[in-house]
């Protein structure tokens, strides 16, 4: 069901689960992409005259209130962004307590209220269904209908994502629908060649998705920290680079199964230390010195990866190619991002880190086919797993 299927929402209290989990340091928001991506649904509901109540999380405060994880700066940013639309944003200092209840009472039609970090309440993430159920009841008491729009959390079986949807008339918000539509295109009959670029620190985080993508993609290009486990599995020394010894056998299996469909870098940018000003040199991927660590794919590899990407009709990219936050090790990530902007078919950037990388490197969002707001959620979707937050929306 979509928001339109809910009928006239004027005057109704609409509880929206958004994913507003953005990087914040000293009260300053880094990349506000997720806040921006949540706006269309909130604007649509507010303009239709709903009283919009937003529940969301920030970080992992583990069930205890902690000022480090307050959503107050997010409420402020939301207020700035919605001001142009003439929409007022309020903030409640608790999740479902007195402050939240009073704020809902005072909320006018066409206004937005953001509730405090739902993960301040230990019941949100509880494995005990009856605990989650209690919190879901409290959230449900604040609202008449529920809209699920936090795509980044649909892989979590949590009270504000899953249990609430079982208790209220519900619909998928525009962001969830848009994300699912794109991911469907990747899994069902992608236009070929279909090229996947995978980076990030750990192979172990991505085993299931690699399995699945190896079965679907024409080429899987590997960069980032995980590449050193692949190089080692091929028999090369990797110096002080990141290495997951316990994954070597699994990776050997991938290399055997996929043959030349797995593309590894041929050169690597190395430095003696993990530091922005550590002197960087380029070495062959099979000749990483013992006292150095790899921090980016090298320029020849960046060119080769870019050529594979540019020739593709469908591309999915997850995970930076190197330590892009440091100028000397940003070349690989920049080259891949640039190549993605040149794809004539569908280009998808998935995952919080990759989305932050492209924005930090100065690329505009609309240069890509789609930037997913979901990290874990988009990977789990591509693994072919059932996502609880989506499955529950299919129920009556
Ligand atoms: C994310 O950052 O991917 C989502 O907000 C989910 O956060 P989580 O991994 O802490 O559940």
What does this structure look like?
- The chain has 396 residues and is of the alpha/beta class.
- It has 14 helices and 17 strands.
- It has two domains: 3-177, Rossmann fold (3-Layer(aba) Sandwich), CATH 3.40.50.1260; 189-381, Phosphoglycerate kinase, N-terminal domain (Rossmann fold).
- The strands form four sheets. A six-stranded parallel β-sheet has the order 5-6-4-1-7-8, with helices on both faces.
- Helix 12 links the parallel strand 16 (346-350) and strand 17 (370-371).
- 3-phosphoglyceric acid binds at residues 19, 21, 60, 152-153, 156, 352, 375-376.
- Pathway: Carbohydrate degradation; glycolysis; pyruvate from D-glyceraldehyde 3-phosphate: step 2/5.
- Monomer.
- One of its GO terms (biological process) is gluconeogenesis.
- It is an enzyme of class 2 (transferase).
